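Hi C.,

You asked whether I'd gotten around to modeling the 188-residue construct. I have! Everything is below, sequence then structure, no commentary in between.
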Amino acid sequence: MATTNDLKNGMVLKLDGGQLWSVVEFQHVKPGKGGAFVRTKLKNVLSGKVVDKTFNAGTKVDTATVDRRGMQFSYKDGSDFVFMDMETYDQLHINPETVGEAANYLLEGQDCTVAIHEENPLFIELPAAVELTIEYTEPGVQGDRSTGGTKPARLETGYEIGVPLFITTGEKIKVDTRSGEYLGRVSS
């Protein structure tokens, strides 16, 4: 148990009959009149739904013990993703629903963090940016420059993003894992 005064970003709370909510942001508010309160933005760990919730200052909240383990994506087994714990070398099979959007950026051998609560994987955390190779994109036309439009490009993971017109098939680029945006070329 903790109080709302102990809240931190990334902390996982157990609310509404055992549902797990991750603290996205919080703000302590002390109005001129009345008691202080804490305004929070919470994200449901399983569904991804984000809600705003206000607590009175000092209210007790139930925190969930979430173990964040460094793991490496090994391979895909049917529809499951297989991760290897980098300390114990145990393998963990995780379903596609839990992996979610992270699947768009996962390559074999990729390091990531797996959040686990009571032996159940909750979600996968990737680095903010990953380097991936363009598997296919239409060739650029003479006169295409760095400013201007974008074109679709298929990454080596099979995911499609928009890239500038001058990018060609086979180039290695940096991609933001939170937004799926092109960040730039990777110099070899």
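If it helps when you're writing up: The chain has three domains: 2-64, 67-125, 129-185.

Thanks,
B.
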